[in-house]
Amino acid sequence: MKELGLACRDVRTREVGIQEIHNKIRPYNVELIRRDYVANGGWETFLSYEDPDQVLLIFMLVF
């Protein structure tokens, strides 16, 4: 992906712990984000705390 100039948006690569260890990045602007979407014939809700400026994922809950 790096060779193609693409950034990975996978949950694991966005986790704050991984980013802090490998890139020394810490969250500063944390927001609660809600995403509702259709999946498996019903609605699912994805709640997360993220730092959107740095594409960091702090916490997530799917229900």
UniProtKB/TrEMBL annotation:
Name of this protein: Uncharacterized protein
Phylogenetic lineage: Eukaryota, Metazoa, Ecdysozoa, Nematoda, Chromadorea
Gene Ontology molecular function: 4 iron, 4 sulfur cluster binding; metal ion binding
A GO term from the CC aspect: cytoplasm
Keywords assigned: 4Fe-4S, Iron, Iron-sulfur, Metal-binding, S-adenosyl-L-methionine
GO biological process: tRNA wobble base 5-methoxycarbonylmethyl-2-thiouridinylation
Top-level taxon of the source organism: Eukaryota
Native source organism of the sequence: Ancylostoma duodenale
